Amino acid sequence: MSGGIRLAGALPGQKRSHGRSADRVGDGVLYGLCMLASLLAVVAIGAIAYQVIDGASASISRFGLGFLTHSTWKPNFGTFGAATFLYGTAVTSLAALLLAVPLGISIGLYLSMMAPRRVRGVIGPLVEMLAAVPSVILGFWGILVFGPFLQRHLEPFLHHVLGFLPIFGTPSTTGSGLFNASLILTIMVVPIIASISRDLFLTVPQELQDGATALGATRWEVLRGVVLPSAASGVAAAAFLGLGRALGEAIAVTQVIGAGNVIHASLFQTGDTLASRIADQYQGAATPQLVASLFYLGVILLVIGLLANIAAQWIARRFDVRMVAAR
Amino acid sequence: MTDLPGPSYEMTGLPGSAGQPAAEDPDALGPLAMDLPAGSGPLTPSGHLRRRQLISRLAEASQTTAALLAVAMLGILVYSVASRGASVLSIGFLTKDPPVLSGVAGGGIAPAIVGTALIMAVATAIAMPMGILAALYLTEFAGRWSARAVRLALDLLNGLPTIVVGLFVFGLLVVGHHQSGFAGSFALAIIMLPLIARATQEVLLLVPPSLREAADALGVSHWRTVLGVVLPTARGGILTATVLAVARAAGETAPLIFVCSIFGNTASLNLFGQALPNIPVYIFNASEAAEPYGFARAWGAAFVLLAFILLANLGGRALGRRGSMSPR
């Protein structure tokens, strides 16, 4: 508490000569500034929603909700539909979650329950650093290093072993496609789920775990019977945050998904997501109709992105989970 | 197999420690041994228990594997970038302009470094005070409902797809005008604001109430308490929050590609005139252009960016650990 004492010694309270009116002004100014900053944050959300919807209005009034079910995207012919991108977004995000949730939970369990303190102090920050790798670098690596590896090794293997499933069709020619995008998204989502679930598992009361151990439960049974259930809602919230991240990731996905216009059952084929299509066309956004349609994709993305986040917040609040510095 | 001493009724499931006490003190554990099926030695797992312990050990092994996988992933990424980036890295790479023509080796990324530094500086100058003020509002002034609203707004802002932020700033500042470095700063500031605000709020909550009460008891006005006691006490944590937010925003590409992506080959400090070259968009453009010399330069740029971000991350954490308070 030495810091506190030093600070208290430096209190401006010693200079009383400033008087009360100055204090009243100071209090008012501080309050006003804080209020203003908070208000701006609230206004920003509204302004973003308004701006994006406004930009999309031409496309919304022309295509209506049919935009969601229409799968042709031909800027030169003035026809636009988002179905391919909705499909791509759903497939890549769900595939990423399917892989990232068990992986993230496992890492969270390892860091909170198994690892010795020293190891925890090293691996924990390393996992968080994985989240700090910029998406553009991850995507760049995804095209040049990861894609060729997938194309040469993993995709033929999966096709050979599980080829009877339509999702593991003929391997791609370039390594770009839904599969690559899903795996890149997994890499981005795992650290989020891992660090949140680690923090959650650390809050599970030790007495509960000791009780289960005393009843003869093995270590895994303690985790499955006590730790996981008492943190389940928090893990669900973390999964929704991860989903929000995966849905909205534009850059890395654009780089590795191959910008396809057709819905394919096979994960090894190209596709596109809502976010990646917006990012694709950033420089070619020529006609007003195309710009409006890109904004329309933005509206859809905004809605589902916000829904995923609100779901996460709602679960967290409902079950009184504290998530510090999520993401 | 069954007569080997092995893990058994030992509580924590640590292997190899159950055999000893059985040999030394058979009486104390006698009743347990009686429960075992005939044919197995004292305190030897059999059948069902053996399977449960096997499952437990498999589960632990897979958790360890998952953690190692994540670390290996980071290692592979850093190695890929470093091994390819280091070969182009030189003083010239950091100080020269990129070549005017594509398909040419050599040149550097100086304009992009300057641009990213400038864009980040302005974004931080916008987001840091705003974030701290919003955090102060949450901890010092807000009532129950207003705090809830502000916190929700910040969390939603944080969860917003960054490409949507790019679209927003594109519609707000670029349509009808032109791309500019400031538009990029503005977009990145929107991304940094919730990060700084929420982390700062966590730190402010850690300031001991006794300090505040001491200031109150001395008759110090509220604003002086905030400026003289609360903020200085939380300084370390606020710095950590800011550094981490900078590390996060410096690599963001999605908000920039609509507002600050069509730029020339020379460095510029003109924030409002035109789009400023910047590292993330440079890498993105190179990756879309598919040209080998461009790839080489992009690996170099990726190396510079990744090194900065990882070092900033480490630095931010160290700062937080050394200071009196940190978000974690």
What does this structure look like?
The complex is a heterodimer of chains A (327) and B (328). Chain A is mostly helical. Chain A has a single domain (62-318), classed as Orthogonal Bundle (MetI-like fold). In chain A, 74% of the residues lie in helices and 0% in strands. Chain A contains twelve helices and no strands. By secondary structure, chain B is mainly alpha-helical. Chain B has two domains: 1-86, no CATH class; 93-322, MetI-like (MetI-like fold). Chain B has helices at residues 19-24, 30-35, 47-86, 91-95, 110-141, 144-159, 162-174, 181-206, 209-217, 222-233, 235-250, 279-289, 292-322. Chain B starts with 18 loop residues before the first helix and ends in a 6-residue tail after the last helix. Residues 1-34 and 324-328 of chain B have low confidence and may be disordered.
What is the first-to-last residue Cα distance of chain B?
Answer: 48 Å
Low-confidence stretches of chain B: 1-34, 324-328
Overall pLDDT level of chain B = 81
The most extensive contact between chains is: A-B, 104 and 115 residues
Gyration radius from CA atoms of chain A, angstroms: 25 Å
Which range best describes the helical content of chain A: under 10%, 10-25%, 25-40%, 40-55%, 55-70% or over 70%? over 70%
Radius of gyration of chain B: 29 Å
Q: From the coordinates shown, what is the CATH architecture of the largest domain in chain B?
A: Orthogonal Bundle
The geometry of chain B reads as: flat
The main pleated sheet of chain B reads as: none
Q: Considering DSSP H and I runs of 4 or more, what fraction of the residues of chain B is helical? A: 55-70%
Number of spatially distinct domains of chain A: 1
Strand content of chain A: under 5%
The third-level CATH topology of the largest domain in chain B is MetI-like fold
Q: How many extended strands of chain A?
A: 0
Biggest β-sheet strands, sense, barrel of chain A? none
CATH A-level architecture of chain A: Orthogonal Bundle
Gross morphology of chain A is: flat
